[in-house]
Write the structure tokens for this entry.
Amino acid sequence: MGTEHGAAPLAERLRAHGLRLTAQRQRVLEAVGALEHATPEAIGARLREQAGPGGAAADTSTVYRTLEVLERLGLVWHTHLGKGAPVYHAAEHPHLHVVCSSCGEISSADPDLLAGAAERLAAELGFTVDVGHVALSGTCRACRERAQEKS
Amino acid sequence: MGTEHGAAPLAERLRAHGLRLTAQRQRVLEAVGALEHATPEAIGARLREQAGPGGAAADTSTVYRTLEVLERLGLVWHTHLGKGAPVYHAAEHPHLHVVCSSCGEISSADPDLLAGAAERLAAELGFTVDVGHVALSGTCRACRERAQEKS
DNA sequence: CTCGTTGCAAAGGATTTGCACAAGT
DNA sequence: ACTTGTGCAAATCCTTTGCAACGAG
């Protein structure tokens, strides 16, 4: 297990941008890594739970502002999976999001799935697909079967 | 040009569901077909413009409710391209949406691009990708070049 | 000490909902 | 007539913003 990227990049990248290392920023980043597919709301909730005796949660607005910063630093990414649900995840393990439009189930898939499509788009339109941001919607096996027996 | 699906399906499908054919529903459907990548707001605006002497626009809430109905009937589809921007399009010509996360430019692409990925997901996860709903985000050629010269 | 950060509360924008009236069948 | 659809306005939800106090460097 590499120690190289444990917690260092945050402090380092913040300094590089003239920004400051704060407890909130560390906590939000930690929360994004812990919760997969984290929404701002979920992150806020988690911080509130973890807020020990010191009462050290982060305000909603701070969560939003922090996520914005972390994204600019390249430490987290976000995707819109559907309606009002931006989902953040650590930038370290890029993966594809696959969402069932029926039950809302979120799965992850191999980014290579889009390699072919990405190449064609690059060649034909000069468009660079951002695999980490992509969300594929469709129907998961369970919902598909449920729909079939229904009709 | 086939007449088979011109305007008939609306009345037909509405009846099949015990719903009624109204002027608003016809107009909204027409607007979605006319405007590509139509947002609810844009649809409302268009209806307001077109509202002739009879003053026959549709209220915002009606637009939303109508789009919901039309989607249930399978006449229109929607995709979330980013933040608060649900985009509707006629279900007739399925296409992929490609959005530049930098400038917001929306392009359409060949659905076949995802054929390979769709097959693999179906085989590996039993997940059926809904190509019409998919939005790929990334960077368009113009923004990519702009970013390069900048740094 | 200086300037970035945070919390709080209020502002915004987009979508949804309740209800009485109008309209389709 | 009966029941669904519509407009209007109020209610929500999510996110952003202004500002004074706080804390990192």
